[in-house]
Structure formats: structure tokens, C-alpha cells
């Protein structure tokens, strides 16, 4: 039979004051020392298995905690253990104001009686647990920097009801406190930002990127009137890539100093505000009354036509796929009035219309028709089909396949007529 005389029970848990030496191996153990005597009153020397149990009553009650330490060294009758070394001793075991009682069982013997009262509940252990938190007791000075991390907050824990109206204003956010690294991608939606809540001083450099904003999150109600001014947008920060095609309407363009009748125009190097040129010259055309003039000696041509030679500025070509002048020659005043595939090649030559007609002589004229050809100077084919004249001062009035090779001759019409001398 082994008798136990408990000589010391203390708790030395948690860091109570700076510089305190903690003898316990961890923060949730209780230092316990006792003396064991045999039935003759002699000190025991042995290695024993000892079971420790904590109850909420000195006789019966409930078991709040227990552990068995299998190899406790007893020397000269004295042994020392740390309760909680083999089975976690939670501070909750000592919750409340009631006393706790320790039962000790040596080996296969029955538990010793009476139980030892733990009159001084391990107060240092309980000191680590606040029984109650007084309202407003947790201030900003009590929180370490960055102590409130994302994992401390339940999903959507900070909702509209947790933040008072206008609670987060300029004064609550430090200068550039909200940086890009503080915002989860697409975390900022239309419902997350109050009207005019975030000023430019609260956002770090480039803090709000496209990936931080949900689609259509920034609506008209999220941007205060005049909120985005020159000071909010860096010089050159909005380039062509930032503007959606068709995104700028006339209503979005300011007056820019223009007065009535003025327009925005390109001056060769930049866009400027200048007078409208309707009724005056714009460098290419002049309108006087109801007449349109070229502002200089320009040739006039329909798109796709060809004006040949260094004097092409004297040509007029209003046909389709027509030509005037001759490459390498300085023929002047050639005119194609209309038609298709016509060519006024000679100087002062004219093809008034028709199709595939040519006037290559100087002063030659073709009035119309199809495939007529005047190669002689001062000669005329009024119309017809495939008529031609190579002499000077000749006239063919019309017909088909008529030909004048001599000079100063006339064929009024018909077909296959020929004048040679």
C-alpha cells in the first residue's frame, strides 16, 4: 500500500509578466509535486504508472479531465509531474468559479481518498481567456498591424449593416491606403462602393485595374458630378486603346473655345478651332454666290480617270475610265465630257461622250457615238459608229464606217463612204 502526501500544487501557465521564467514545458500544463510513502511510512523509490483525474466535486461529480502518465520516477518518495503533458488540459476545465478536485491512482490500486482540492485554480491559465469583453474595449491600438486578415472574416461578414452610413469617408482611409494588392480581382462591384465614397487620395498609384472592377460595376450613380477632373487623370493616361469604338459622341465634346460658325479642323500638325470655309476658300475650292471654283489651276477628273502630261492641270475628264493628254507630251486643254473609255489625246481636243471614241489630233472633236477616231487636226466626227478621219479640217456627220483621208472634206452620213483626195 502506498500513501500519498501532496506537498505542493501550483500552476505557472502563460506569460504573466515580462521576464518570468516558466518551468512548465508548454502553456497548458499544471506543475504538480507530491510525496509517496509505503504502508510502513517509508519513502518510495520506484518508477510507477499514475493516473490523474480532475473532478467538479470532492466526492462524486463529473470527470472533467484525466490522463495516465506511465513512467513517473519517484525518488526518496518525491515525484514531480506536469498535468496535461499526455492529455491536453484545456483552460475550459477551470471555467467558472467552482473549485476543482484532483484524484490520484497509483498503478492498479484504487484511487486515493480524499481527493485534493485545487483551491487555487490555475489562474494564470485562465488569465489567457477573457470571460467577457467590455463593449468598445477593443480599440485600434489593441490590434496589431494587418491582424485582421481575410481568413478572420466570414464570407460577406462586412456587409451594409456592419458599416454605418458614411462611416468610411476620406478621414477613415489613410492616404493611398487602398492599393491594388488590397483588392481581390473583381471584388469591387456596383453595390460595394457608396456614391462619392472613395476619393483619389485613398487610392494608391494604379490601384484600380480593370481586373479589380466587375463588369458594369461603375455606373452613373457611382461617380459623383465633376468627380473625375484633370487632377484625377494623369497626362497621356487615356490613349486610343482605352476608348471603345463609338464611345465618344458629339455631346461628349466640349466647346473648346469655339464660337458660332467655327469648326474643328486639321491645320497640318494639330486640331485647331477655326472659321468654317463655307462661302470662302479652303485651299482647294472657292464658292462665290452659287458657283464652285477651283482655288488654283487644277485639273478636274472623275475618280479612276487618267490625266497625262505636265499640263494635266488644264484637263477636264468627267467620263468613266477615260483619259486626257498623252504621256510624255505637253498637250493642253484636253477634255472628256462623259461616256465610257473615251480618250481626248490631242491639244485642245474634245470627246463629248459616247463609247470608246478617240480624238488625237490637235483641235480634234468627237461628239459621241461608238469607236469613232479623229487623228487629223481640226477635224470633226459628230457621231456614228467606227468612223474615222486622218486629214485636216474634215467633217463626218455620222453613219458607219466612213473614212476621210484627204483634207477639207465632208461626209454627211451613210455607210462605208471614203474620200481620199
Question: Which key phrases capture this entry?
Answer:
mainly beta, eight-stranded parallel β-sheet, 421 residues
Main beta sheet: strand number and arrangement? 8 strands, parallel
- Biggest sheet: strand arrangement: 12-14-16-18-20-22-24-26
Q: How large is the share of residues in beta strands?
A: 15-25%
What class, by secondary structure content?
mainly beta
* N- to C-terminal distance: 165 Å
Shape: rod-shaped
Q: What pattern of helices and strands is seen along the backbone? A: EEEEEEEHEEEEEEEEEEEEEEEEEEEE
Report the uncertain regions. Answer: 5-25
- What's the rounded overall pLDDT mean? 80
For the CA atoms, what is the radius of gyration?
A: 55 Å
Number of strands: 27
User: With helices defined by DSSP (H or I, 4 residues minimum), what is the helix count?
Assistant: 1
Quaternary state of the chains: single chain
Helicity range:
under 10%
Task: Write a brief caption for the model.
The chain is an all-beta fold and 421 residues long.
Secondary structure layout plus pairing:
Elements: E1 2-9, E2 30-38, E3 46-55, E4 63-74, E5 78-83, E6 100-106, E7 116-118, H1 123-127, E8 262-266, E9 271-275, E10 285-288, E11 291-294, E12 300-301, E13 306-307, E14 316-317, E15 323-324, E16 335-336, E17 343-344, E18 350-351, E19 358-359, E20 365-366, E21 373-374, E22 380-381, E23 388-389, E24 395-396, E25 403-404, E26 410-411, E27 418-419
Parallel strand pairs: 12-14, 13-15, 14-16, 15-17, 16-18, 17-19, 18-20, 19-21, 20-22, 21-23, 22-24, 23-25, 24-26, 25-27
Antiparallel strand pairs: 1-2, 2-5, 3-4, 3-6, 6-7, 8-9, 10-11
